[in-house]
Structures are given as C-alpha cells and as structure tokens.
Fold this sequence. Notes:
Layout: E1 3-5, E2 14-19, E3 22-26, H1 42-52, E4 78-79, E5 89-90, E6 94-97, E7 103-106, H2 113-128, H3 153-161, H4 165-175, H5 179-183, H6 208-216, H7 222-229, H8 232-235, H9 237-255, H10 259-276, H11 279-287, H12 295-308, E8 315-316, H13 318-327, H14 334-342, E9 352-353, H15 354-366, H16 373-390
Amino acid sequence: xxxxxxxxxxxxxxxxxxxxxxxxxxxxxxxxxxxxxxxxxxxxxxxxxxxxxxxxxxxxxxxxxxxxxxxxxxxxxxxxxxxxxxxxxxxxxxxxxxxxxxxxxxxxxxxxxxxxxxxxxxxxxxxxxxxxxxxxxxxxxxxxxxxxxxxxxxxxxxxxxxxxxxxxxxxxxxxxxxxxxxxxxxxxxxxxxxxxxxxxxxxxxxxxxxxxxxxxxxxxxxxxxxxxxxxxxxxxxxxxxxxxxxxxxxxxxxxxxxxxxxxxxxxxxxxxxxxxxxxxxxxxxxxxxxxxxxxxxxxxxxxxxxxxxxxxxxxxxxxxxxxxxxxxxxxxxxxxxxxxxxxxxxxxxxxxxxxxxxxxxxxxxxxxxxxxxxxxxxxxxxxxxxxxxxxxxx
Length: 394
C-alpha cells in the first residue's frame, strides 16, 4: 500500500510507494529544456525529501544518503484544440476528432495505456458509425506470463531448478509463467545450494539467466538491460555499476561482442547511470558539504584514519586495505578493494587522504550518506589497536 497527496506545500502531488523491496518517492513538475537525457536535480530531490518527512513518524529520519537512485522524465503537455483558454493544457490524454473524422489521441502515460486505447476505439466507433462484433475486452485481457501464474508458483521453481527462495519469488512475480523459461537459462553455481542462478549483485535477486533471456527478447545494449529489463538502475545506482562487468560479460557471450564493444557498452552504461539515474547528483551532494566537526571528533577520526595508514604516508591505499583484511583473516578480491577506495576517493587519484576521509565522516554525520564500508573498516581497526595498546591482566 502506498500514499498519494495532491495538497503539498506548493500544490504539487507527492507520493511514496513500495516497489521491489525499496520505496519510490516523487514527484516534481516544472518546465524544462527538451533533451534526450533528462537528469534529476538536487533541488528536486530536496523538495521530495522535505515533503515526505511530513508523513513520517518522528522516529524515522529520511536522510539525503537514503536516496540510492534518482531519475527524471519529460512529459509533453497537450493543448486541447477544442478549448481556447490556458486551462486547456492537459496533463492526461485528450482525444480529438477532426471534421474529416480523423481520430487523434495525444498525451497520456504508460500507466493509462489501456484506458487510452479503449477511449480511442470508442470514439472511432462513435464518429465513424462502426459496428464492432463484441464489446471492449481489455479489462480481462491477460499480459504475457499471467495465464499460468499462481501465488505459489515460485515453490515449483525452487523444487524443479534448485533456485534460492528469494530468487524464485522474484522470477515468478516478474515473469509469471515465463519464469520457467528464464530459469532454464540459469547456469550452475558450483555450490551445494543454490544449484543454479548466479546473482548479478549479492544484494539483489537478479540472476544471470535474466540477462540471457533479455538478449533473446532483443535487448541489444547494457543500458536496456540494467534500466528496462531488470530495473536495477532504478533501485541502486551504485550496485548497478558494480554489477555491470558481469552483465556485460554475459551479453558479450550471447551477442559475440569484441573487447572494444564491451568497453563501449560499459562506458555508455556508466554515463547513463551518472547523468540519468542520479549518480552524479548523489556524488555532488556529498562533495558540497562543509566540514563542521568538533576538535574532539577530528582527533578521534584522525586516530581512526591513522589506524589504517600505519606507515604514516598521509593517505590510505589499496595496500593498506589489503593488509587490514589479511590481518583479520578475511578474503577480499582486488576489485572489491578498489571499489572500497573509489567510494571515498573524490579526486580519483587512487588514494584517500585525510581531508577526503574527514569529508566522508562529515557526510555520514550530516546524513548525506548513510554508511561507508571504509569507515567501518577504519573503526574496526582503530578499536582493535586501542584494545591492544590498553593491555590488561588479572
């Protein structure tokens, strides 16, 4: 169940809806330049955050860092030719019949496509005096995948294919009875359980088979897969970038891409995430924060920083992270180490200096970001060093 309220502070509609394990909040409505790549703005994001706070209890604090993806779209507003004043601008669709009985429908949106089609056909029947053989059947027309769907269908996917329970539920809810066709494309995991279905990202139930299925349903670009086939880009832009190499490898296998094509697809997808899915505006919101920490906080954070920078170089490198994980007996891939560093490395020089670290801690304090894996590692290292230095005895 979601919430929609048209009575916001400036008259715009506000809503928030549960979707795919996350919450979608919106929306803004303002004039803009026409472009092929509309981008969200910090002003729009702050407006939505400010408005939804009015509907939440005091124990729930929505922070800027809770925004995992953000996007914008352009909707043309249609001028009704049957009216003469400015109020004739329609945010829904309009149907116009010319003197020659040409029926035109304009405006509208994806969510009302069935009613748009029905009303257009009804108008055509009326003005052209058509004699249909039956009434409109769109209300009972099932979409592909709905014919054999049942709420418990996911159990068969678990039993027949050896899929994880969460993955099976996702496939059933997304593809309906076509989930079995998707599951047949899943590769072996090499584990005792699940038997098949390699996750594209550990935090989400999307699996390798969905990429293969998308390609065989004519998906030709990585952007198409991450945004329109899987919708992962709408849920978490950072997780999407982390999943991109695996997704592109699968597509390359299916579409026989060269190394240069894989590189081009990766660059296009990253640019899409930055410009159209809010990655750039999210990054800017973290970088624009003034450091406002007390002397005690700075002293504490410097200690945590130095617990990783054991050589007193003045920066944290991949080698420092590797040494920390090795000391604690944890295995981390090289790519994961670089990902940890990139989250905080604002100037992209492969190092995190003290100013970048303090900027991160200020962002966490202000709510611009919710958490940082690097901060958690530094905290663990600092606490261990403090215990070791304190000694002890009986």
